[in-house]
Amino acid sequence: MTIESPRESPNSDERPQERQTGPVVLRRSRLNEPSTTDQRLLDSRGPTDWVHTDPWRVLRIQAEFVEGFGALAEVPRAVTVFGSARTPREHPEYQLGMQLGSGLADSGCAVITGGGPGTMEAVNRGASEAGGLSIGLGIELPFEQGLNPWVDLGVNFRYFFTRKTMFMKYAQAFVCLPGGFGTMDELFESLTLVQTKKVTKFPVIMFGRSYWQGLYDWMRDSMCASGKIGEKDLSLLHLTDDVDEAVSLVQEAYKAWEDAH
């Protein structure tokens, strides 16, 4: 094994040659860097694998947060409404979604949905036609095709977790209309945030008793009965079929928030 001799320390009055590349100082053997940073940026396309690396994804994620915060920072008080993308326009649930969007708009609330078709479209449509602010937060999916035509302010996201932050940050209440896995995910995430007091004074409304009653009963008879959640946790949920009641719950919660601040 060859042992290299230690490098001699320069005399205190000798300054080695150096070259700066931005904040980086290059000396000795590193002086022979063949090009400048600008030259490497402008002179050649180079390999593209870096576009798919995690450090680059971090910048994309950061950009999504910046764009979302910037777009939504000045929206009025709002209610996030979740629901199925598969609800046909002729279905009664579509009409309920329109009525809910209209009722929330009439009460002075903007509505925030996932911006897709089905129930989301119905809520956006009801709010927009009533003269309210209709917001859609879209997501890049292989089987969905952009924001519905009743979105007045739309933001598209690559990442679910960025989009979810926007759903939660700019809402004063959460309403879940009948939906599938995505709606379930959003329902329980909302409940978890309220239960753990990450958000406060937020009602979580399950709109459509015939659809949600079985799930509510299971949470009461299984989760609560076995001590996995408490009675106080169960009381975070409100079941209703009535638009006026849902709007009233939102208004009461907002007044309680105002009184606390």
UniProtKB/TrEMBL annotation:
It comes from the Bacteria. InterPro entries: LOG, LOG_fam, LOG_family_nucleotidases. Residues 1-18 have a biased composition (Basic and acidic residues). GO terms for molecular function: cytokinin riboside 5'-monophosphate phosphoribohydrolase activity. Coiled coil: none annotated. The keyword rRNA-binding does not apply. Belongs to the LOG family. Keywords: Cytokinin biosynthesis, Hydrolase. PANTHER family: CYTOKININ RIBOSIDE 5'-MONOPHOSPHATE PHOSPHORIBOHYDROLASE (PTHR43393). The keyword Signal does not apply. It holds the Pfam family Lysine_decarbox. GO terms for biological process: cytokinin biosynthetic process. It comes from Allosaccharopolyspora coralli. This is Cytokinin riboside 5'-monophosphate phosphoribohydrolase. Its EC number is 3.2.2.n1. One of its GO terms (cellular component) is cytosol.
